[in-house]
Amino acid sequence: MTKTLAAKEMPHSGVPSGPPPSHFPDRPGWVPAEITANWDPNPYAYQTEEELMPAGGLHGQLLAYIVELLRYVLARRGLMFLIDTFLLYRDERGVKQRIAPDLLLMPARFPPPSAYDLDEEPPPLLLVEVTSPKSRLADLEHKATFYLNLGVPAYLAIDAVNSTGRLRRRIELHLWRRVDDEMQEMTPDEDDGFTLPEMGVRVLADGQRIRFVDLTTGDELLDSGELVAALEAERQQKLAEQQARLAERDARLRAEAELARLQAELRKLRGEE
Q: Are 138 and 174 in contact (CB under 8 A)?
């Protein structure tokens, strides 16, 4: 079962209400209105206080955790994430605007682009947002249609942070896809997860944990701490198996030596020696 969304435009801070002046056809929408000449075309210029706010705290930790889990499985598939990087697009008036999704999935490239410009690049394969107290309403109610109207085929919202900035008791996942040129919210599987063929993984919310499973191997992806723990557990298991084999060998050698001693004693008693 899917839910079709009605088209809705995202608000743009600093976007003039009227059409761009005809003699400034390439003026980006992020240039403040009071600057009328010699503006900086760099997409990272004139950032607002909200745009400059770092994705710190729990929100930033969740992003780092997701990237760490997926980095190598994406690399094997020739993919990569851009983290909190400006996506440049043109609004309905043709004015170039910017927005910074938390994660942008694209083919791997080195060096990665400093901004992802839809004038030069195809729409990203997938965009991901992790909710924060200030962004939750936009992440869950507005950005799906906004992103998909830019040609993005899939948008995943991870509702993990509540209005007080704390981790929710139960993380929820929301996935939207372009289906027959409509924006549809997808219904999760029985385990509350979604299959993401764009990355070759399944994503699941397990209480306060976000889990990813490799579609090829069926293995759950581990972060560095979990991987170290798993490797240590495997090392301990192999060590225990080796020690058990050595103990078995020592016991066998002792038994053979004892048998040889008894046989020698028996021969002695029989006068064979």
A: no
Amino acid at 221: L
Average pLDDT over residues 61-85: 92
pLDDT digits (tens, 9 = 90+) for 194-233: 999 999 999 999 888 889 999 999 999 986 555 444 444 5
Q: Euclidean distance between the first and final Cα of the chain, in Å?
A: 90
As given in the structure block, the two tokens for residue 245 are 């084999």
Side by side, the strands of the sheet bearing 209-214 are 193-196, 201-206, 209-214
Q: Which helix (H) or strand (E) holds 211?
A: strand 209-214
- Residues paired with residue 82 on neighbouring β-strands, in sequence order: 104
Q: Please give the Cα distance from 248 to 41 (Å, whole number).
A: 74
Preceding omega of 41 cis (within 30 degrees of 0) = no
DSSP assignments along 58-120, one per residue: HHHHHHHHHHHHHHHHHHHTTEEEEES-PEEEE-TTS-EEEE--SEEEEE--SSPPSSEETTT
Q: Which of 196, 178, 181 is CA-nearest to residue 103?
A: 196
Strand 167-179 vs strand 209-214: parallel, antiparallel, or unpaired?
unpaired
Mind listing the pLDDT tens digit for each residue in 143-161? 998 998 999 999 999 999 8
This prediction has a pTM of 0.73
Q: Which residue, chain included where needed, has tokens 């947002």?
A: 129
Q: How far apart are CA 265 and CA 259, in angstroms?
A: 10
Q: Which SS3 state, helix, strand or coil, does residue 180 take?
A: coil
3-class DSSP state for residue 182?
A: strand
